[in-house]
Amino acid sequence: MEQFKPPNALIFSGNLSENWRRWEQKLQLYLTATGACKYPEAQKIAILLHTIGEEGLELYNTMNVVYETPEAPTMNELLAQFRKRCNPRKNCVFERYQFWTHPMPDTGGIDKFQTELKSKAKDCEFKDTEDLMLRDKIVFSITNPALKEKLLADPDLTLEKTVSICRIKETTKAQVEAMGASAAERQMQALSQRKASKQYAQDRKSGHIKQSMQKSPDTQLYSCKQCGQRHKPKQCSAYGATCHKCNGKNHFAKCCRTKNPLWKMNKEKPKEIDSLFIGVLQAADLCTQAQKLDDAWYTDITIGENTVKFKLDTGAEANVLPIATVNTMSTPVKIEPTTTV
Q1: pLDDT single digits (tens) 313-340
Q2: Rounded to an integer, what is the distance from CA 222 to the centroid of its chain?
Q3: Handedness of CA 170, 174, 179, 181 (dihedral sign)
Q4: Which value, to the nearest 10 degrees, does the dihedral of the CA atoms of residues 107, 112, 117, 118 take?
Q5: Is the torsion defined by CA of 267, 268, 269, 273 positive or negative?
Q6: Are the beta carbons of 224 and 208 closer than 8 angstroms?
Q7: What average pLDDT score do residues 192-210 get?
């Protein structure tokens, strides 16, 4: 029976009493599974000492094991000696304190909690009242007000009925959560579909999706009314652009369908005309009228190759030349129209 693995070495750290209880149970199961329980007592003792580990073997060497029949020692007698060493005298008050203060685990449910309580109740010496103590502990530990009220309302409540009601509550809660999650997923899926349909309708209305594209979903390229080119869906170069005709978005000016474009309105708008007031005009000859100009400020300014004497006025908005002066200049001067009157 090599497929059955013997128990690991006994752990002497931590709760030795609980470690021994579990190790002895595993040893008995191993002996039964492999058929070694039918072996001679000496062979069974050898299996025990071989599997108990180094610390267990050292403890055995320090024990004065007294057998009822020294010539024929039994494994049960040796187990009793180990049990006495590993199980010190129990404090019933402390064991009951641990039982009543043991919290309900967050995971595992009522079955795991009941198993843990039964393990602790073994050392509490409840005797015939153990089921009642277990029932009360479970009711006290429940944090769900509705469930606790339901249990307290039953005058004939037993441990079995308490565990059964708790199991039903856990199963119902899990089913409701699963149904709620499924409903939430369906709502999210429906919302996503509505958003996609709305976006599709907007794109179609704006011209990004052509009607023929609906009929031929396999078409790779289509003629776009926004940019005037052929391209794949959602690859329009006009997306985000500003039209120079109407200042609209997502289309080029060459594809603009606005009836009154902005450029036409600007073209038809009359130009604004600036106005200028000129109070006095004086023409001064450089030779004959020099004696009359003593009371004013003048300076010579070169225009091309011609020198003209200008009157200085710090408050003037423009300089004016008589047409006769312009005609006498040796260098031709180009005269252009102005909007200032």
Answers
A1: 666 667 777 777 777 777 777 777 776 6
A2: 38
A3: positive
A4: -170
A5: positive
A6: yes
A7: 68
